[in-house]
Amino acid sequence: MSIKSIIQILILLVIIMILGSVYFQYFSKEKTIIEETAKTNLESEKLYQGLEKKIIELEKKNDKLKEEIEIKIDQLDKKKEDEKLEVKKKLFEAEKKLEEEKRLLEEEKKLLENLKKLEAEKKLEAEKKKKKAKNVVKDVEYISTDKKGNKFRLLAISAKSNEDDNNLLDLKNVRGVITSDIRDPIYIVSDFAQYNTSNSNSKFYQNVIINYIDKEITCENFDIDMETNMAIAYNDVIVTDPKSTMKAGIITFDLKTKNININPESENTKVKVTTN
How far apart are CA 170 and CA 202, in angstroms? Predict the structure, then answer.
């Protein structure tokens, strides 16, 4: 074997050794990298699992917190509903109280109006009475004379103007007398009478008593018309003289002649005469 061949063999061995060394180092480094990568992956997995666990715990806490929040919201809503109901109840009671107060005020207002109306009526009545009292004249006397010379004298305890006719005077406790120069007087007494100041006509009523010569006539009404010189007695007429008592319907007096005409109440009845 030549030196050249030995050198070539040596060179080949060196190359093989170099290649072997490179190969060994490469695969040894790759194994380290793989191991390190695997270790890193394991740590990452553990870290991921830890993070995932924490996330799950956070989610649980979040769900629990949400549940608590929802419970509190429900409680608040229920409390608000209760508060609303309480407010509505108080509002209803307040409205009911206001309605009752309004009703009482309306009743009080109505009562006050009635009292006011009553006071006004009393005041009006008092004014009327006061006015009537002002119109009342005490111890009056009226004298009139017709064309024939008949004198009519009328006396009364009181007199007041008639509310419906200013020409009329309402007399109380009345006494009257009709006199003439040629005939006997006629005397009249009654509880009440009306005297017309415009024509001197008179209407005596209630418990009327007429005295003429020897006759006494009682009745409820006795009207004197000075314009026609006639007088009429009617309603429960009774004529009494020394010889008899007559119950008649109507008696007419002619003030000119002083003649008396006694008539029954109707054509179908007669004058009743009782001899004394």
Answer: 10
